[in-house]
Amino acid sequence: MKYSVTFPFCILLLFAFTLSVSANVSPYVTFSQEITGFDESGAQYPTVAINPASLEGMRTHTFALGQAQKLVIETNIHDAETRGLDKFAETVRRCYRFVEKESGRTLNENILLYIIEFPAVPEYYSFQMSFAENEADWGEVRLVLVQKNDPLHGPSAPETIHELLYDTLPHELGHDMLNSISNLQHDIDSKPSYHTRWFIEGVCELLAKKFSRFEIPALWENFLARRHINTVLDNPRIRDEIFQWAQENSNSPTLESDLYGAAMLVLVRWSRIIGITHILIKIQEQEEPLAGAELVTMMESSIGLSRDKILDQGHQLGLNLLPLAENRYPLMLGQY
Ligand SMILES: [Zn+2]
């Protein structure tokens, strides 16, 4: 299969990053990643727990990233170089630079990626790594699974590689970049929501989709279609929900995915008036940290339209972008 991503009936991809402190134990940082699937009756498919530390034949490859940052790849693949590891690492570097350039901000993250090969890749899995806080200088820790002999780069690489390089990584580096903006309120588990999620996920989705458009337009089309960008902002439920969207919610996976698409369209609309770099500068210049409602007000005055009109125009952008993606026109700067 070439540059496409398929979906089972229902799939949940969860990334978590937690900092835990308990008595007599130094603080530690945990990264987890889980893919769970459900059949039509709602029953969960079996999940395989993956622990890279217990795998045989692991090797470490280190690459330079940014100014002083590094990309470390841990893998059980013995011939990774001949299967495209250098090109994989080069794409990670481009992604890193892209997020820095688009945001006008510097990332200070080291990235640790596990590329694990299996004779048969488990479809549903969980993965967790913990590091003592003083040892963990990782901004991102991710796992990607490949099948024996899969290439690690190019059109014949597996979907897992495409997802990681062209969607997950630019999205997650977007979060890392936004985390460094002290004037932006982020939801914290079990605390009241600031309702900034539409903005945060919107920026991350915009960065991710724009990167995929630069790199592989066929994937861009696929990613946009998955978010239903031609219909999401025509849906009254999503229009009601978008600016109230909280980290903790009981949304169905489909509604949650559509909200990502809706948030992206709102940010596309805003970024056509002032680029993301300037939106972020404006936020940083405020005297107090901003919650979601204040961001909505800032956007309304910046665009000169009410939120309803912005949603209407976001819907129109979704209608226009999808056929554009289907025709895969190359990106012209400033037109996203
Ligand atoms: Zn996100």
Ordered list of secondary-structure elements with their pairings:
Elements: E1 10-22, E2 25-38, E3 48-50, E4 59-65, E5 69-75, H1 85-103, E6 110-118, E7 125-132, E8 138-147, H2 159-179, H3 197-215, H4 217-226, H5 236-241, H6 253-271, H7 276-285, H8 292-303, H9 307-327
Parallel strand pairs: 3-7, 5-6, 6-8
Antiparallel strand pairs: 1-2, 2-7, 4-5
Helix pairs in contact: 1-2, 2-3, 3-4, 3-6, 4-9, 6-9
The structure holds zinc ion.
Task: Describe the structure in your own words.
The chain starts with 9 loop residues before the first strand and ends in a 9-residue tail after the last helix. The chain has a 4-stranded mixed β-sheet with strand order 1-2-7-3, with no helix packed on it. A 4-stranded mixed β-sheet has the order 4-5-6-8, with helices on one face. Strand 5, helix 1 and strand 6 form a beta-alpha-beta unit. The N terminus and C terminus are likely disordered. It is built from 9 helices and 8 strands. Helix 1 packs parallel to helix 2, helix 2 crosses helix 3 and helix 4 packs across helix 9. With 336 residues, the chain is of the alpha/beta class. It folds into 2 domains: 146 residues, no CATH class; 131 residues, no CATH class. Zinc ion binds next to helix 2 and helix 3.
